[in-house]
Design a protein that fits this description.
546 residues, alpha/beta, Rossmann fold, GMP Synthetase, Chain A, domain 3, five-stranded parallel beta sheet
Length: 546
Amino acid sequence: MEFNLGIVNEAVAAAIPDREAIVWRDRRFTYAQLAERTRRLANVLIDHRFRVDAERDTLAGHESGQDQIGLYLHNGNEYLEGMLGAYKARVAPFNVNYRYVEEELVYLLNDAKARGLVYHACFAPRVAAVAAQVPSLELLLQVDDGSGEALLPGAVDYESALAAASADMPADPSPDDLYILYTGGTTGMPKGVLWRQADIFCASLGGRNGTEEWSSLDEIAAAAVNGGMKVLPAAPFMHGAAHWLAFNALTGGNTVVIPSNPTTLDSADVWSTVQAEGVAVMLIVGDAFARPLLDELDRGDYDVSSMFMLVSGGAALGAPLKARFLDSIPQMAIMDGLGSSETGTQARQVVGAGQTTSTGTFTPEPGMCVVDEDMTRILGGTDTELGWLAQEGRVPLGYLGDADKTARTFPVIEGRRMAVPGDRARIDADGLLELHGRDSVTINSGGEKIFAEEVEQALAHHPAVYDVVVAGRPSERWGSEVVAVVQLSEGAEVSIASLLDECGRHVARYKLPKDIIFVDKVMRSPAGKADYRWARQVAEDHSNRA
């Protein structure tokens, strides 16, 4: 049996109507209230003539037959409502990076052919500046966020629209309806990854009971009755990992807790929320989130006895920081999740207090595999060669509007359709996955391939390094040379020789940076992902000045 995400929400809400689904500030919405609010939003969209023009079986993998609506929001109940309400109306919502400047926003909205936009009022000036450049844009739903920005001309107030709409279930959503996730654009232009909801549900949004897919709505609802954990995504919902955790929580009958300050990573706010709500599971994105959270935990006096799982997704969590977390919260386990917009969840590593911490080694999940260099053969058995990380089974349909990239990223290998987004990996002799890094940020230096992430993790072992991103820079001698852009811990002083010595303890000498550039702050996406375009520009600018 296959499932639509809106229908799953209705089934869970019917089973546990009075349990809290979302907690944010003074808002405590039960599952029944969430279901009603999202039905109302669905009817708002239908009343504005949002529709399905073509069913899935008539379309190619890179095509959409549904209307799209952008979610230009900080974290809050409206983000998750926006997704669920759109699904119930058979409309395809997509994530909008709220740090985009006008040119980037125009590109994204036009690429998605957005008919609507749900946005926080603080973004109203930027929406006003770009709206005329997006011919498809018709409906503006403005969410009051206390910023004082007036309702844009022609826009509709979000809460007023919900209050006036019908609370009836408006449509008969299909498992074939789209889930769209735009890539971060840190290595190139963002692309909209198209999934059938039935596939992303099983791949990443709670559609499995362990390794087996749920067989009925009744089975999902019965399991949700036994939920009730408090789950806190600390990353922005516009990042897949954060709303993946939220949907897993909602599928399982748990409560999504949102920190009071959604505009930035406010570490004191996060730990205060953990303490006040008794949060059991928290999601972060790699070292960029871990460091400030650990620093605040060291400074403050917080009761974190409710925590039993820290999840990191979307970026590597370094071994030294894992060890610090386990020293500070010894009853907690840490799960490093591996996945991408194009694959869903692929593998994980779980470690607890007293265990050896590491980075880059994972236990495979269903459907994960490695294919050879030429993408003609699935590696297995005694094959331990370096290849491409791949996923089979529940994989996306393609990239919105891009038939060529769809064909390249989702090839058929040995008769099986795969997702191969570009990560280098191998399966070791014990059957574990060794992740080497994204090929698009691999540095070819002197004929050797060097993975930026492994050099970053090596440098991160030095206690003076607060954050680091590694990029390649053109070199007459090497073709491309490794450059590290480093942010030091507050008050730290360190020599380049000391950094290179530490790095050399973890990677081969030929992988050591040829240059280290110190900056006040390493730039990352709001989700904590490294901005490699920025790092390359810093490296090249520094070379030009030299």
